[in-house]
Amino acid sequence: FWDLNRTWYTDDPDLTPCFQQTVLVWTPCAFLWVFSLLELYYMRRSPNKDIPWSFLNLSKLALIGLLIVLTIVDLANAISTDGVSAPVYYYTPAIKIATFAFAAIIVFLNKRYGMRTSGLLFMFWLLLTIFSIPRVRTEIREHEARLVADTWAEYQLISFMIFFAGTVLLLLLNFFVDKPPRESKYEITAKDCPELSASFPSRIFFAWFDRLAWIGFKKPLEVEDLWHMKPEDSSKEVAPAFLEHWNKTLEKTYQTRETSNEASFKKFGNTGRVDFRTTKSKSIASILPALVKTFGGTFLFGSFLKLGQDLLTFASPQILKLLINFVSSDDPMWKGLLYAITMFIVAGTQTLLLGQYFNRMFFVGLRIRTALISAIYRKALIISNSARKTSTVGEIVNLMAVDAQRFMDLTTYINMIWSAPLQIALALFFLWQILGPSVLAGLAVMIILIPVNGVIANMIKTLQIKQMKNKDERVKLMNEVLSGIKVLKLYAWEPSFEQQVLKIRDKEVKVLKSAAYLNAGTSFIWSCAPFLVSLVTFATYVLVDENNVLDASTAFVSLSLFNILRFPLSMLPMLISNMVQTSVSVKRINTFLNQEELDPDNVQHDEKESSPLLIENGVFSWGEEETTLKNINVRVERNQIVAVVGTVGSGKSSLLSAFLGEMDKVSGRVNTLGRIAYVSQQAWIQNATLKDNILFGKPYDERRYQRIIEACALKPDIEMLPGGDMTEIGEKGINLSGGQKQRVSLARAVYNDADVYFLDDPLSAVDSHVGKHIFEQVIGSSGLLGSKTRVLVTHGITYLPETDKIFVLRQGEISESGTYKELMDRKGAFAEFLVQHLQEVNEEVEDLDEIKQQLESTGGPIEILNQLKRTNSKRSRSESTSETGSVKDISRQNSTNDSNSSLRRRISEKAPEVPKTKLIEQEKSETGSVKWEVYKHYLKSIGLTLSVATVLLNMVFQGFSIGSNLWLSRWSTDKEAENDTGLRDMYLGVYGAFGAGQGRKELQNGSSHSP
């Protein structure tokens, strides 16, 4: 099986036939069978199906069939020479036949499940090709050494050469991908990420990225040059997977809570929603188990890549030792070439593994951040009203922008938790093999540094908590400033608010400064650690025993191991800092995601109900405060228009919120059917074009769109805008009036084509004639929403006769309900509301006169009649005054009209200008080399002294580092230092001085970076 004299101790090495027939064949076959389970797992999860037949996959099957035929002939030959051939000549062909048949099955399954490339098959054919090379050499040598012609031997040579060519061709074919699948879960577009259609070797070497790099080389990259994100990295795929595990974590946590409440947890059917109830228990669910379950598989695979890279890292020093010993020996040249080639292969493989590791970890971090941002955003939408008071906008923004980012930053290096100790342990082990017990001195240095760093880490954690609180406060204040910037400028409050922001920022800078000094200390400790370990170890090695000589092999191999040790030790401070920051973020996110949510069962959707809107015995509140609505009984039939009226603060808008499930239901039952559209009292406008605000993602229907904008009285406004409906509306609609914003919001709801419409006083911001037009064309029975169910909250009493039913709210209760005529006949709360409204209205409206006459004709209570008479008396005096000054008013009005007409003429006579339809212009990035003015400005901002000091200190640090290595090289090659203790001590002292210089400069450099 193995002959050292034939393989190692010879000038012409070769492997034994038994080794070639077993290890070099069975190893690739075993690889295929073992890792096929992983391939089958990926097949089952493949989003694609059915790749069409092509020349590529047919060629693969044909070549595999050829290999099977050749192997069957070898097996038949072994059987025909029974008793002559060794058993391995039976086993190996049989294993090869089974393996090749399995490979053909995998090719077919890849076609069926839409996998355009196979990493398993590529690696299998690569291993088989490489492991076949020794036998190729053996067959050629035997052929050249054969003196007598042998037909069967000639056949074996030709057969194996064809076999080898077949494996090479199959390997080459796996550099290409099959045709796109016929079926796919995701839509295939021209801007898809090329990695999706890249072959396995292209993914390994990142060759799919070359095209973008080439485009960037030829011209500056633009957004149009980039491709779409991979579907599996999108929030559409990532967020549901995380929420599924998060809800299970919540369920498990709340089921195990020990509380004094009867039911602190309840899951609602198949909605995946969780009911948070007030509980005395302080235990909360953590996001970490859900993150592990969601992304643990991908993360674990990356950890295996990291493990392989770490192990290969320690192969290089061992090969280096062999190479150094080879130089000083008389071994054959082929051994030196073998060492060099092996070192190159190890280094290349290590680089590939590290690249794939970072690629996977970056994407895992990206997915974690995406999942957390989605979960936080979702939570912000469904958080309860009482919990909303404790969570400011600034805190929520920081959770999504800062805390979620911390997870992405940590994920890339989190494997250093186990990788760093592993690398340190292996480095110390191999150093022990070289330097013996002297390594314990270096180990003692590392053990001493650990508790010091632990104390600093706790101090940094405390500062980090303070920093995040300060940041939340600052972001909250900045949000208020930006939201009310118009008011700030009108009242000239900028200096006052500037002082408030700077005051908070000063507290932030103070905390950052303290944290920077602590980070500088940590960086100094761990930057000096590798050199301190090497210095103490070398000093102990040469001082404890005079026979310990620091020769080239010992010095350079040890230095190589110390350099490996440098990376984990230098990464520990950054890792500890990131872990401290992330631990703070974990607590903050946990606290927010465990806040109470609105109960999804506040509103039911029972299709057995005939009425689309129903509230029975409803009692509602905003959070834990006293009830806002009580004794609510509302039933709205299909296609009805229902009005809700009442004085300010009577609970009209709260009633709509109760239907929408945004209030806490204390008791009662709420049921809604169909799709709902809601027009709020405060119009919500997107920072987009007017057209996009109306469509809101719906497909564009020209005819329907024009009908809606005309019905909503938007056509004159659109004609006035410089770009028509393509004019960009600013943030919160700053370039629209209140009435225009309200009409855009109404048009959006109408275009949505819902079944039920909740309209919260949509006509309050428009003129009376415009309001009448909108009511007739949109809201009323003959309008666009005539066939819909409508609930209208309004103060406009002129629209009430057109409604099917009216609900009168007083102090959170429905005091009256019925048709307009029924309520007028009752002469109760509704009549009082009308009188009160008439007292507040100053202008003369024909419909109001009709309502007054109706009130007088009904002969209501004496108090109502008296109020109505007083109202008429006031109105008469107002009209008299108006008539007295009518000439002046008419003159003034005519003057105003003439002025407006003149202004319009002057504007029309001006030269046409380019319409400014966009408020926010597209950002233009500078291209080419960075100008020196930028560097100058940057250095000026830092400060000349600090800038020069930083550059000089880094140069000095690198100088000391290079000097120490050169000095160690000189020491290891100085033969006189082996016997001269004084010379040896001099070398050791200078080496230590280089280390002290590095440490001092690193401390100064770290301090210079502190604010």
UniProtKB/TrEMBL annotation:
Keywords recorded for this protein, A-Z: ATP-binding, Coiled coil, Membrane, Nucleotide-binding, Repeat, Transmembrane, Transmembrane helix, Transport
TM spans (from-to): 23-43, 55-76, 88-108, 120-137, 157-177, 283-305, 337-359, 413-434, 440-460, 515-543
Compartments (UniProt record): Vacuole membrane
Coiled-coil parts of chain: 831-858
Taxonomic superkingdom: Eukaryota
Similarity-based family: Belongs to the ABC transporter superfamily. ABCC family. Conjugate transporter (TC 3.A.1.208) subfamily.
InterPro entries: AAA+_ATPase, ABC1_TM_dom, ABC1_TM_sf, ABC_transporter-like_ATP-bd, ABC_transporter-like_CS, ABC_transporter_C-like, P-loop_NTPase, TMD0_ABC
Known EC number: 7.6.2.3
Regions of compositional bias (Polar residues) in chain numbering: 892-902
Domain ABC transporter: 613-836
GO molecular function terms attached to this record: ABC-type glutathione S-conjugate transporter activity; ATP binding; ATP hydrolysis activity
Catalytic activity annotation: leukotriene C4(in) + ATP + H2O = leukotriene C4(out) + ADP + phosphate + H(+)
GO cellular component annotations of the record: vacuolar membrane
Protein name listed in UniProt: ABC-type glutathione-S-conjugate transporter
Ranges annotated as biased composition (Basic and acidic residues): 906-922
PANTHER family assigned to the protein according to its UniProt record, in alphabetical order: ATP-BINDING CASSETTE SUB-FAMILY C, MULTIDRUG-RESISTANCE LIKE PROTEIN 1, ISOFORM I
PROSITE patterns: ABC_TM1F (PS50929), ABC_TRANSPORTER_1 (PS00211), ABC_TRANSPORTER_2 (PS50893)
One Pfam entry name: TMD0_ABC
Domain ABC transmembrane type-1: 300-581
Chain positions covered by the region annotation Disordered: 862-922
Membrane disposition: Multi-pass membrane protein
